[in-house]
Amino acid sequence: MLKILAERIFSIKNEADFQELALEIFQYQAKNIPVYSRYLAALKVNPNSIQHCKDIPFLPIEFFKNNIICSDPENIAITFSSSGTTGTETSKHPVNDLNIYKESYRKAFAHFYGPITDYCIIALLPSYLEREGSSLIYMCDDLIQTTKANGSGFYLNEYEKIKSIMAQNSGNKKILLIGVTYALLDFAEQLPFRMQETIIMETGGMKGKRKELLREEVHHILKNAFQVESIHSEYGMTELLSQAYSKGNGIFECPNWMRVLIRETNDPLSLASAGRTGGVNIIDLANVHSCSFIATQDLGKLHPNNQFEIIGRFDNAAIRGCNLLIN
After folding, report:
1. Alpha-carbon distance 183 to 54, whole Å?
2. Do 104 and 231 fall into the same domain?
3. pLDDT of residue 316
4. What residues contact 249, with CB distance under 8 A and at least 6 apart?
5. From residue 235, how far is each of 26, 48, 155, 206, 242 by CA, in Å?
């Protein structure tokens, strides 16, 4: 049954398809993912009573810190882990089927940006390179190799070299500069120049390297330094196998197999009314082998057409590897 469900994830065409598959995956996970099953039992929720996605209970993301959440603990292909400050417990996401992760990020990138082979990818992700188990590094490494472009790769503070690579690829390849926020700001300070036809995409935060800034401040600095019209963003985390993307102004869109709902801040089991700020709940059907229904510690609000915005974090939320900027 699990294989059949997995095969349908990337064939979703409309909301009806999504709702149908989400409910089927919920029923499977409610019975076959022990941690989720116990959580539902503690809430006294009968899975058979759930008839709509809005009624599905979302597993608090903190459960990934102390539990093995996957369908087959004996056959784990890789375990992704979140970053964390010294002494803090990090999240672990054991992945049974890496092909699902690869298909998820490859199809999502192609949906929002076109064929990956059209690009030269320059990655400025020093904090992620310094540790093992980063799902972001895994994704970027695979995309970089797929581009087959001269200069695609990971870089540290080699700004002059990056500038040269951009010049070499200009007119031949689209250029994507993806970086953790503080590294992009370092670049902007040390070597500002006009980045023609370059997509600048920020992911992550300051990692304790710089003072936290509002997203608008960061984007203003980067747009001025590199003379671009907008700053893109990637929204993902260790516990998910899918990413949402923003092409400007911090408004994100999900691929067809991912949805965001907003819960009440003072009542985590209730959804917030339209337009209100609340906790971010995520449905990620690519998480078919773990849990597809996750209550994050991010704060956000919905926009029309399934778009969403990240406002910040709950006050007591630990600093996370893929934490976006406070807004």
Report:
1. 38
2. yes
3. 57
4. 230
5. 23, 32, 21, 15, 9
Domain that holds residue 79: 2-87+254-313
The CATH number of whichever domain residue 175 belongs to comes to: 3.40.50
pLDDT tens digit string along 291-321? 999 999 999 999 988 899 999 888 754 444 3
Cβ–Cβ under 8 Å, residues 178 and 148: no
Residue 137 and residue 37 share a domain: no
User: Residue 309: what are its φ and ψ, rounded to 5°?
Assistant: -130, 140
178, 234 contact by CB (below 8 A): yes
pTM tops 0.85, yes or no: yes
How far, rounded to the nearest angstrom, does the alpha carbon of residue 26 sit from its chain's CA centroid? 21
Alpha helices in the chain (DSSP H): 2-8, 15-32, 34-42, 98-113, 126-129, 135-147, 159-169, 181-190, 215-226
Same domain, 68 and 128: no
**Which residue matches tokens 């997203």?**
215
Radius of gyration (Cα) for the chain, nearest Å?
20
Tokens 């990637």 -> residue: 234
